[in-house]
TrEMBL record:
This is D-alanine--D-alanine ligase. Keywords: ATP-binding, Cell shape, Cell wall biogenesis/degradation, Ligase, Nucleotide-binding, Peptidoglycan synthesis. SUPFAM superfamilies: Glutathione synthetase ATP-binding domain-like, PreATP-grasp domain. One of its GO terms (biological process) is regulation of cell shape. Belongs to the D-alanine--D-alanine ligase family. Transmembrane segments: none annotated. Residues 139-357, 585-825 form the ATP-grasp domain. It comes from Sulfidibacter corallicola. It catalyses: 2 D-alanine + ATP = D-alanyl-D-alanine + ADP + phosphate + H(+). Its EC number is 6.3.2.4.
Length: 834
């Protein structure tokens, strides 16, 4: 084979496409790019965005870090001419199609490669991909191969429009229903969980309509009752097919307002949205053996290559049903692919190097040269995530993203340190940090026997697999090890706080590390404590009277005094506590809202809200939020106080930690998009700045700041567009959900300059060190900025907009990993000054 030096290898990563999964494709492509760029020559890696019209565009690397394609799609991206595109396909050494859904998983892009005589591309050939994307064809092939399948019916849009009543009667008469009289409807040629519904006869038309928005054909099938799982299959450098260990999936039910029992996209990608994962989902080696044997057979019989993800169910009697085969698995930072691969000694960069090896070999070339597996050297950095605040799930995402990006720089010796709810510190392996939620991590630390047995099982199963690209199983898998805070300075040179809210952001840990002389990222204890208190920062903004920078009016409410306020409005004494206790027990929203007791409570809340609006001169609504918590936790923007505030208060006072947004905002249709509800003693009631009669009168923005204390610069601001009146956690931190436009469209260069100047002035008056995120409202007609809040440890998930701001600001131009490295430099400089 002809040798191919990685440092001289030209790679093209293709992503986007016309499907509803294009933002998942963006996330996968970003992980691919980030994982290989330091082990190769970044200048030789082309990022190719495929638009909805299938036009190929050259994308500058700064935009790969956008949360959504919509963030950059409106830009004048340079398009490849037919000649330039053909030259790209001819001259690139390895082609990497990471397009989910149409044009990618249907084989169209791979066929284009082959039409140009190219075979050095990652993934399956066109026929194998086309077969797996067509769900009805997949079911037919499964049946042909002797695998069990459930009764189903393929339905076209034309058929349905011609005879909906007749088809409904026929389908519900032929396909067995579950105990609730329901069956499954899903798009026939669409990946992910989009458009999938569990519906009864009454909701059948609605389920079909949802599926038809994604495909002109819908597969209707019997619901499979069993334990859901997902299993990754990889092909080794030598071609050996190696199924990994399956992840079990359990969807939590019983939360008020969350009526879906399906594994939706939001549950899949947003920690804390209602899904629990377990890898492997059983230690029954006989069952695991059958699953892996069947997966190997399917991979071969469906003509797949390199990688795939197979989804299915195991019934109580041990029967295995394969429900969905994916020829291009999602490879976002914390996907099943990497969770399962880490058990067998493969890090993110190892998996992608394996794919490059596989593709190059198809044109008789072999990657050689410096190993991409070289460990980091130099400074010992502990990255701390987790905690006990309402934002612990977001912290888990920031924590893992920071760890991966710093590791990929090959500049540091990075250690993942988990802070549990008891404020104990644990050094954990990558597999543990890859768990979907902090609850799963807590369970694993509390009882590591399942993990210990898994390591032993993987050691037995691995054999010689992945020896060219991976590590020994034990090298990257170890049991959690507790470390005392007093011992940090012995083990580490720097502490990177990836915590949000709680002791991570209120100055507690900052004081502890400063006392020990240890450098850390972000502001010190005094500034952190001030910024954690939203009312304190509001008062300081008012006192400083920075020209053009103001703060909305606020009232502080002691939650303990709330009932007395409502009694003053006519509520019977003790009635609020009775409602909360009854809600905690029964959690029936419809019955609650229909009760006379609740209506009386709602009337009093409405009168109370009217008094607050008069006092704050806020006729169009109110903002309610905890006095001391971070981000979007517990923030209600209410333009309909009678409908929204009573429910909000009941959730806030109950034992529930999240509230489905659809209960507050009628425009939200998803069951599993939540408002996180922290425990709090004091509530801020704030003036609402918006005006429903003047759209665009205010623009909500987020602005990052960066630099040493007293010399902060404001990064390029971003306009944040919310589905409702308030940005949800999903829109801020879940990949592919929130839209952020940088810089805000419609503003002049001078307006952006003045916004940046005022935000920087405010940050420097506060004494911000290192970095922070300052959320504001901007009123273009008056050119005024209004403070929302300051976050001294802003989210650093892969979806965080501060990365794009650091890349697009002329004074910085930092990629995410380099931005994080700059935070370390600033932290060390601050420690030296103090």
């Amino acid at each position: 084979m002809q040798p191919l030096d990685p440092k001289q290898t030209r790679v093209a990563i293709f992503f986007g496409g016309p499907s509803n999964e294009r933002n998942i494709s963006l996330d996968s492509a970003r992980t691919f790019f980030d994982s290989i760029r330091k082990s190769m020559d970044e200048r030789l890696i082309s990022l190719v965005f495929i638009g909805p019209d299938l036009t190929f565009h050259r994308l500058e690397s700064q935009w790969i870090y956008s949360n959504t394609i919509e963030d950059f799609e409106g830009l004048d991206l340079p398009a490849y001419t037919a000649e330039a595109r053909d030259r790209l396909l001819r001259e690139t050494d390895v082609l990497c199609p990471i397009v989910h859904g149409e044009f990618g998983e249907d084989g169209a892009l791979s066929r284009l490669f082959e039409d140009h005589g190219r075979h050095a591309y990652v993934g399956s050939d066109p026929d194998g991909l086309a077969l797996t994307l067509d769900k009805r064809a997949t079911v037919a092939k499964l049946a042909e191969l002797g695998f069990p399948v459930v009764p189903n019916r393929l339905l076209s849009k034309g058929e349905w429009d011609a005879d909906p009543a007749g088809l409904t009667a026929d389908i519900f008469g032929r396909i067995p229903l579950d105990a609730g009289g329901r069956l499954i409807t899903k798009p026939n040629n669409c990946g992910s969980s989009d458009g999938v519904s569990l519906v009864d006869r009454e909701a059948f038309a609605e389920g079909l309509a949802r599926a038809f928005t994604h495909s002109d054909q819908v597969l209707v099938e019997q619901r499979i009752l069993g334990r859901e799982f997902s299993l990754i299959v990889l092909q080794d450098v030598d071609g050996a097919i190696f199924p990994l260990l399956p992840t079990g999936i359990r969807v939590q039910e019983g939360l008020p307002g969350d009526e879906t029992a399906l594994y939706t996209r939001n549950k899949k990608y947003m920690p804390g949205a209602g899904a629990i994962h377990e890898t492997p989902f059983t230690h029954d080696e006989a069952l695991l053996g059958r699953m892996r044997e069947q997966a190997l057979s399917l991979f071969r019989d469906f003509g797949l290559r390199d990688w795939a993800r197979f989804d299915g169910f195991v019934t109580e009697d041990g029967r295995i049903y394969w429900s969905d085969l994916n020829g291009i698995p999602g490879c976002g930072l914390d996907s099943f692919l990497f969770q399962q691969a880490s058990l067998f000694g493969l890090r993110h960069s190892d998996v992608f190097q394996l794919m490059l090896h596989r593709a190059a070999r198809r044109e008789d070339r072999r990657l050689v040269g410096e190993s991409a597996r070289k460990g980091g050297e130099g400074m010992r950095v502990a990255v701390i995530g987790g905690g006990s605040s309402s934002e612990r799930h977001v912290s888990r995402m920031s924590w893992f993203n920071v760890t991966q990006k710093l590791t990929a720089l090959q500049r540091y010796r990075v250690t993942s340190v988990y802070l549990d709810r008891e404020e104990r510190y644990w050094i954990v392996a990558p597999f543990i940090a890859l768990q979907h939620t902090v609850d799963e991590i807590d369970a694993m630390i509390g009882n590591p026997e399942h993990y210990r047995a898994t390591i032993e099982l993987c050691n037995r199963l691995k054999g010689d697999a992945f020896r060219e690209v991976g590590h020994p199983v034990d090298a990257i898998n170890f049991l959690p090890r507790q470390v005392a805070l007093a011992d940090f300075e012995r083990h580490f040179d720097f502490v990177f706080l990836a915590l949000h809210g709680g002791i991570g952001e209120d100055g507690t840990l900052q004081a502890a590390f400063a006392e020990r002389g240890m450098p850390f990222n972000g502001s010190g204890s005094r500034v952190s404590r001030i910024c954690m208190d939203k009312h304190e920062t509001n008062l300081r903004c008012r006192a400083w009277a920075i020209p053009g920078f103001e703060a909305p009016g606020q009232i502080i409410l002691d939650v303990a005094a709330l009932e007395a306020d409502l009694v003053a409005e006519g509520l019977a004494p003790g009635r609020m506590r009775e409602l909360v206790d009854g809600f905690d027990r029964h959690r029936d929203i419809a019955a609650l809202c229909a009760s006379t007791e609740y209506q009386a409570f709602a009337n009093c809340c409405s009168l109370w809200a009217d008094r607050c609006r008069d006092r704050l001169d806020s006729p169009h609504g109110l903002v309610l939020k905890p006095k001391s918590d971070g981000c979007s936790s517990g923030v209600l923007v209410s333009r309909d106080p009678r409908a929204q505030i009573p429910l909000y208060l009941l959730f806030a006072l109950s034992s529930l930690d999240r509230m489905p947004l659809k209960l507050l905002y009628p425009g939200v249709t998803e069951d599993d998009v939540f408002l996180q509800m922290p425990m709090f003693d004091q509530l801020i009631v704030e003036q609402y700045l918006g005006r429903p009669d003047a759209p665009g009168h205010f623009v909500e923005m987020t602005v990052g700041v960066l630099g040493p204390a007293g010399n902060q610069i404001a990064l390029m601001p971003s306009e944040t567009r919310a589905q409702t009146d308030v940005l949800s956690l999903d829109e801020k931190f879940n990949k592919g959900v929130g839209i952020n436009l940088t810089p805000p469209p419609g503003l002049t260069v001078d307006q952006v300059r003045r916004i940046r100047e005022r935000v920087a002035t405010f940050a420097n008056r506060l004494g911000i060190e290192g970095y922070a995120r300052i959320d504001i409202m901007y009123q273009p007609p008056t050119d005024k900025v209004y403070l929302i809040e300051v976050n001294t440890l802003p989210g650093l998930t892969s979806a965080t907009i501060i990365y794009t701001q650091a890349l697009t600001t002329p004074e910085t131009r930092l990629k995410p990993a380099e931005f994080l490295s700059r935070l370390i430099e600033l932290g060390r400089e601050a420690r030296n000054r103090h």
